[in-house]
Amino acid sequence: MKAIVKPKTKIKQTMAERANTLRAGVLGANDGILTVVGVLFSVAAATTNQFTIFIAGLSDLLACAFSMASGEYASVSAQKDTEQAVVAQESALLKTDWAGERQAVIDYYVARGVTTATAGQIADQLLQEDALGTVIRVKYALKKGHYMNPWYAAFSSLVSAASGGIFPLFAMTVLPVGWQWPGTIVAVLLSVSLTGYLAAKFGDGLVKTAMIRNIIVGIITMIIHYAIGQLM
């Protein structure tokens, strides 16, 4: 039983943390692309001064990257605090309601096709070896002493948001003047298609739907900000 149960928990938690970091990265890249192109289109529609366009885009890229990073840090830190509170709560319950905690472990295995008698034996053995670790695993899919790392998510968002914003910034400020607008549009559409694809893959979603949704959002973002720039 020991060889069957514990490795599954370790794999599950490792994949969960990795998925959270990847999620933060994909969302950060997508936000970086859309926020930077929004500013670029607004400013470029209002002025042809390349330096002004570049500074506006670069400033927004940096602001978006650090904003995403701080947001992810706060979000994952809150999640970590919740996980730690749950562990503390279960630790107290093991002292005051051992029978209830044992029943929770039994129910977990019964729900997976194990007979009640066998589930009781499994519960007794696991609780004897690591009571707290067993309870938080079967009730919350947590691993004792292993929590989400807010710094990983923050760094992933910082790098990905900055990387995503580079594509439209490069296209709008480095390409020849005649290619700036079409080049930026193509760069944005390709970039958001990629983030939609990755988001669907990491989240087990529909790839085509995610890509189309991101493309539509990208197009709408460019149209709105171009109109704002024209009004200015």
- Sketch the topology as an H/E string, one letter per element: HHHHHHH
Kindly name the structural category: mainly alpha
Are there runs of 5+ residues with pLDDT below 50, and where?
1-14
Helical run tally: 7
Average pLDDT rating: 83
Percentage of helical residues?
over 70%
| Strand residue percentage | under 5%
Rounded to an integer in angstroms, the radius of gyration calculated over CA atoms is 24 Å
Tally of DSSP β-strands: 0
Which key phrases capture this entry?
single chain, 232 residues, mainly alpha, 7 helices, elongated, disordered N terminus
Description:
The radius of gyration is 24 Å and the shape is elongated. The chain is built from 7 helices and no strands. It has 232 residues and is mostly helical. Helix 2 crosses helix 3 and helix 2 (50-96) packs antiparallel against helix 5 (150-174). 35% of the residues are buried.
Task: Describe, in short, the structure shown.
The protein is mainly α. The chain is built from seven helices and no strands. Helix content is 89%, strand content 0%.
Compile the SSE list and pairings.
Elements lengths: L1 H45 L3 H47 L1 H13 L5 H25 L9 H25 L2 H26 L4 H25 L1
Helix pairs in contact: 1-2, 1-5, 1-6, 1-7, 2-3, 2-4, 2-5, 3-4, 5-6, 6-7
